[in-house]
Amino acid sequence: MAGAEALERLCGKRLYICPLCLQGFREAQAIDELTREHVPPEKHGGKRMLLTCKECNSRAGSELDHHAITQEQARWFAADQSYGRIPMHLSFAGLGVTAELRKEASTNIIRVLSECNSATDIERFAKAAGTWGDGAELQIGFRRRHIPKRSQISWLRSAYLLAFAWLGYRYVLREVLKKVRLQIKEPATPHISNFYTFDASIDGRRIGVVQEPHKVRAILVVAQGHIVLLPLFDGDDSLYERIAECQGGHSFRGPSFSWPDKAIYRLDHATAEELATFSSLRW
Question: What are the C-alpha distances in Å from 96 to residues 112, 113, 114?
């Protein structure tokens, strides 16, 4: 297990520590206690990159990723792009059915779901809809709702996991990341802010280091316009407060790196010479 090897190189312990809750697991527990994690979520085009414990993975799906996926679908729909399938409810003349909205080629299609409605309800709705004329109203209600802040925290979680996959335990086991993990664990409570922004003009995926402006030195994670900043060095507890003080946005400058296809735990496997080079960035 690559993660266990990385931790062993770092501190001599042969364990895999879930990067979110920091609970340790022996390799014999991997099948029963750990799950493969997509970064970002699979519906955002993420790849299986690392392991998290089952509890952290399942909680994220319902508390965070659902909100990010729903918000992204709404954005794709508004931009006339492919958006997958959006569950919805149709109401007409006092009758209602469960349906879905999807895009085929350039056409938006509403399909009543036979698996979610009785045959009688579908027949009644179709008969009523056949009388649809001027002045009649077909009401459409989307069944999924999203909380924008939870969508942002979903992207924070993905950025944190990517930084772990890229840099390893030497990065995430520092005290400065404690508030980030707490925000992911407790999305209803504001622990940090100003960590996220969105810019539709920025395409692609990358991870890098913000060196300028100096006030905002940080780890930068970008994925299709979603931009997340993470603390760069030990003791930087005021990063998000400094971001709030900056007016009018930023043009971030600094080294940029390719989005990893798998966990490489770069700092955990670094030689003394490589760590000396990293020290110039104050890891």
Answer: 10, 12, 13
Do 231 and 239 touch, CB atoms closer than 8 A?
Answer: yes
Instruction: Clarify whether residues 87 and 165 are in a common domain.
Output: no
Q: Which two tokens stand for residue 23?
A: 């609970």
* Residue 183 shares a structural domain with residue 247: yes
Local confidence band at 201 (pLDDT 50, 70, 90 cut-offs)? confident
How far apart CA 90 and CA 76 sit, in angstroms, is 21
Q: What is the pLDDT of residues 226-240, one digit of tens each?
A: 999 999 888 888 999
Q: Is the pLDDT of residue 25 over 90?
A: yes
- Evaluate the omega torsion of the peptide bond into residue 40 and state whether it is cis, within 30 degrees of 0: yes
Does 266 share its domain with 178? yes
3-state secondary structure 154-182: HHHHHHHHHHHHHHCHHHHCCHHHHHHHH
The answer to whether 151 and 71 have CB atoms below 8 angstroms apart is yes
- Please tell me the distance from the alpha carbon of residue 9 to that of residue 55, in angstroms, as a whole number: 27
SS3 call for 226: strand
Task: Domain of residue 212: give its range.
Answer: 2-71+147-281
Nearest alpha carbon to residue 283 among 176, 192, 205: 176
- Give residue 265's identity as a one-letter amino acid code: Y
Distances (CA, A) of 231 to 65, 97, 167, 218, 242: 22, 48, 13, 5, 11
Strand partners, 226: 198, 223
Q: Which residue has the tokens 């798998």?
A: 262
For residue 283, the model assigns a pLDDT of 43
Same-domain pairing of 166 and 232 = yes
